[in-house]
Amino acid sequence: MLKGKTVIVTGAAKGIGRAVAVAFAKEGANIVVNYRSTPPDDTIAAVEAEGVKCLAVQADVSSFDLCEKLVETAKDEFGSVDVVVNNAGITKDTLLMRMSEEDFDAVINTNLKGCFNMVKHASKVMLKQKSGAIINMSSVIGLVGNAGQANYAAAKAGVIGITKSAAKELAPRGITCNAIAPGFIETDMTAVLSDKVKESILAGIPLKRMGSADEVARAAVFLASSGYITGQVLTVDGGMVM
Ligand code: NAP
Question: Domains in the chain and their CATH numbers?
Fold first, then answer.
């Protein structure tokens, strides 16, 4: 079903983005690996090892114009844009009392505006095609909030708002839009947490372990191939939020 399709994954140089890119490559899709500063060489090698085509495009997703170029480049290279996984994200955690305007804006610009930028430009191509699947990476924090993450929670809740609105707007043309809300996943983003914080998070996870990037990637492949699921938020969190 995904064989020969074009999949754009933002922030795909490492972590969940890399796992998503490789998972779609295993399904036979050609992959556009978007990256910002981390060199995407490992992702490109892993994607190409699956025998599909890979194009790496550098772009900061917080730029409206660069996202337009990213989508256009993918379309020019592969002829269509079938799946977009809006994965790029950052954290700038601190309590509200200490959170600067810059901390807030940076997280909103990448995590929320970046999602809007990609949905906006990719949906233009998908509307013409009358097909497509968009998957936005939210977070359980967007569902329940978290002390020290007001900026991140706001952005990830906003991603859910964009997802549901886009699902309603795009459904008449056969385009689906869903969100994934990962819980506590083993990547560089969570590697910075102290053992004490990790322990307290693990205590609240019924499956009693962190998730892997591959487990999130499998959910993305599932949503992209489901066809009749749209406007949903799929938690991949070991039961953290029920
Ligand atoms: P990660 O290992 O830190 O990787 C994030 C990737 O996004 C990096 O490759 C980064 O590139 C890229 N990126 C950041 N800002 C960007 C921008 N403006 N434009 C383009 N790319 C950008 O994080 P991760 O854990 O894989 O997280 C991936 C997504 O899942 C994020 O949206 C995150 O919020 C979400 N998530 C993660 C967890 C978790 O527990 N790990 C839980 C819930 C949700 P650079 O290396 O160049 O900065």
Answer: 6-235 (3.40.50.720)
